[in-house]
Input
Amino acid sequence: MSRSWEALRALRLRLLGPAKELVGTDQFGNKYYRVPKHQTRAGQTIPERRFVEAVNQQAYQYETGDFPTEWEAWIRKKRNDPPTIEEILRNENYREEMKQKIRDVSEKDKLLQAKEYKEGLVAEPLHTHVKGHASAPYYGKKEPSQDPTSTANTFQPGSWMPPGSSSSHKK
Output
């Protein structure tokens, strides 16, 4: 029996390739698999393939963070070994600690800025008027130009005077 079983297994391996192997599961219930490197009947080498069977089968319902970054790195072959639950939880705790530290530093910075503004140590930021497109005073109207203009058979050269030239104002 074992000899015929091995023959059937070898035939299935040659025809269909190796079976997928469950590598692990994350805290959300997603299952991660790999298909090892193998050769086809024609002798072509097929590289290792890694994939996930997600709990949520509809692709449009996924959001950022549905897959832990450690598993995503494993699927993309950025790491050789699959992550452990302990590693994922440790990294998640570290990320939360960093987010809290960032919030604390940001709050301290805002308080320090407010104190410096109040004491007059730092000038208040100015709100500048953005020039250009819709904020220009001549938006929707013909823009004044000092460039030469031309209409059909007539040509009028433009006049240019250096900025701050007193002779331009006295004419």
Q: What stands out?
A: DSSP finds four helices and seven strands in the chain.
